Amino acid sequence: MEAGGGILLKIDRLGAVVRDERPWGGFERYTLNEPSTVKIIDVAPGQRLSLQRHEHRDELWVALDPGAVFEIDGERIEPSVGDRVLIRAGQTHRLSSAGRATRILEIAFGHFDEDDIERLEDSYGRV
Q1: In a domain, 27, yes or no
Q2: What's the predicted TM-score (pTM) here?
Q3: Domain Mannose-6-phosphate isomerase type II C-terminal, which positions (predicted)?
Q4: By the 8 A CB rule, do 65 and 81 touch?
Q5: Which domain holds residue 102?
Q6: Which of 2, 15, 63, 101 is spaced 20 to 30 Å from 43 by Cα?
């Protein structure tokens, strides 16, 4: 996001997550009035997405089920349900299942275009 004067602002997307308590429970707000694309991605047992990176968007991943595996810049993370990870534009990343079906919430910030996927490695021959 560019402010007047050409200064590039980096938003702390993890720090921007807001928890709001209500008498009935509460909610977490991940984005407020900014362009974003929201998906729930499900991964079949033992499968994995391509190792990839994007030039034009950051992604925030939230583990919804046990068994997800996040690979970010070569680091393997086995998140607990509710854990969050921020993937900055340009970082390599991959999502996989550690043996059982799993889902994540993905919030993409910035211009979203499937053509922005640069596949570096793919189990399905799409490189």
Answers
A1: no
A2: 0.84
A3: 22-122
A4: yes
A5: 35-114
A6: 15
Tokens of 30: 């991940």
- How many domains would you assign to the chain? 1
Q: Given 3-state DSSP classes, what are the helix, strand and coil percentages for the chain, each rounded to the nearest 5?
A: 0, 50, 45
Residue 86, domain CATH: 2.60.120.10
Instruction: Indicate whether 50 belongs to any domain.
Output: yes
CB-based burial label for 45 (10 Å; 0-12, 13-18, 19+): exposed
Q: How many CB atoms lie within 10 A of CB 63?
A: 23
CA distance 38 to 22: 24
Place of tokens 């340009």: 90
Look up residue 48 and give its two tokens: 């994995």
Does residue 1 register a pLDDT over 50?
no
pLDDT on residue 5: 44
The amino acid at residue 74 is: G
Give the per-residue pLDDT at 50. Answer: 96
